[in-house]
């Protein structure tokens, strides 16, 4: 009868011992009944009964290759990942084995319940594969979550002994607590060669871009904790709470000075009578508070670096719906590659900790509510359980390998808008190319620049038809004999009234789904820029896709929104003087605008483009897309005539935004830092190698 010893621990440092009598199939479990239930959830092919002996002569793995990236193809062989024409990576898990040295001493790192949960999640996911010959990724069943449990020299030999190790290529290792005292380096100090590491606590220096995955530091002490629901609209008692143990004395002194400035800052520490009770915190007067419940009473919660950059406090804060204030220079936030943490957290340099109140007081109530919603969304979707974290990690790797099937920014970050129509069924996920687009040009009497625009757009390969909306009731349009010959149909529609909304009327002459709205002074756009814009719209037919961009900002001084045209990285609108949209939104603009918004625009002869941005973003919940880098959109001959040349223009546009917010009852616009450019547009290569050669500059 064979007897095998298995050890199980939690990341919190609680270990269990289990003996398995293999031949009789009897499990003897001490306190670790829970550990046994976890292994029973694993597929039988992972519960190996084999043991491996490693000697002093066994070859260790090579040191960590710090030059690995996804794109150099020396650390990840992507051709292993395309079997069966599927856009899902296949992940193989090595069977759990016991490792001994030549003296019969067990050198297997203890297996935590958390690591078993990671293996269980993968084995029950769509990514799992039983066939190592067809696997894209390999997961060693060696628990490296907590560096304190690891003997690096022995683990290095264990990794090198794996059958498909191959210098660590296509292998993924999980580590949440890197480094040990006294240095506490922020990466896994084990010879891992070319293996990827999903690590908690990476810095911007130790993280290998596009290769490693930054994951959260899971807090097992939160298991089973349920907090009462709290509305993101509800006011909180405290502006800021600090609840961490063992902070550096410098940080403690700085926090004391912050408390002296504002009585809405609350400092908590371990309780002297029960220092090991994680569910309690004591204030400076010694009064006890339930933890993490007390965090629900704060608007902002500090997450300050400790010995390690990554802190489990982040999990506590997110669970409580408190906005984290990260004070850890160089720390890479979990899943930063796909999650937009600027929407859900505040980052403060360590040297600026004494100025934290100046920063926090600048946030408007509306912004705070948005950040609370976002942090709750991240918690529920990606952080609430180890299973969620594991699947998010694999999805990030999957998106790298299959970029054409990757989740979009919105899919990773956007909250479900229950009031919005998400991609109406009749809007295809990808519009057909054969139909092309209709250019709708709004004009009044600038015939020369109008003809320039017609000539330019007429050169675009995907153009189907040109419709000119003649908005001048006093002067007739030129006869067709004088119009440029573009080889494409041109239809001139004379309107009865001079209204800016005429550009969005769903004319029967528009036979394509796609419309390119143009002003008669946008003479600088090249055919390549317009063709590329159409290609982007085809992939996003439920969005506005355009060229000139603008941004709305909240002004604390006036407690209102302002319209900004400065060159910034963020955008929330694209101007419809040059923008693609679906004809469906022309119908909605004409017949389904809220209140008297359309009439208000016609009366003020301004802001029809802002109104269209409000409409599309409110319906779809998606921000517009800016294409190509050009930022200047001026007609040199028309500057004196342009509406935007009026000094009062910016004030009027700001008034439009605030009036529209009142009509909609909320601010639907979404600021994003995103732009679409053609592949190779920045590369100094011959034009023959580029599909879109003629692109404007800034």
TrEMBL record:
Pathway note: Protein modification; protein glycosylation
Keywords: Disulfide bond, Endoplasmic reticulum, Glycoprotein, Glycosyltransferase, Golgi apparatus, Manganese, Membrane, Metal-binding, Signal-anchor, Transferase, Transmembrane, Transmembrane helix
Alphabetical list of InterPro entries matching this protein: Exostosin, Exostosin_GT47, GT64_dom, Nucleotide-diphossugar_trans
Chain ranges of the Exostosin GT47 domain: 87-362
GO biological process: one example: heparan sulfate proteoglycan biosynthetic process
Reported cofactor(s): Mn(2+)
A single MF term (Gene Ontology): glucuronosyltransferase activity
Bilayer-spanning residue ranges: 7-30
Taxonomic superkingdom: Eukaryota
Domain Glycosyl transferase residue range list: 437-681
Entry EC number(s): 2.4.1.224
Membrane topology, record value: Single-pass type II membrane protein
Subcellular location(s) of the protein: Endoplasmic reticulum membrane; Golgi apparatus membrane
Cellular component GO terms held in the UniProt record: endoplasmic reticulum membrane; Golgi membrane
Major place of residence: endoplasmic reticulum
Family per similarity comment: Belongs to the glycosyltransferase 47 family.
Protein name: Exostosin-2
Organism of origin: Biomphalaria pfeifferi (Bloodfluke planorb)
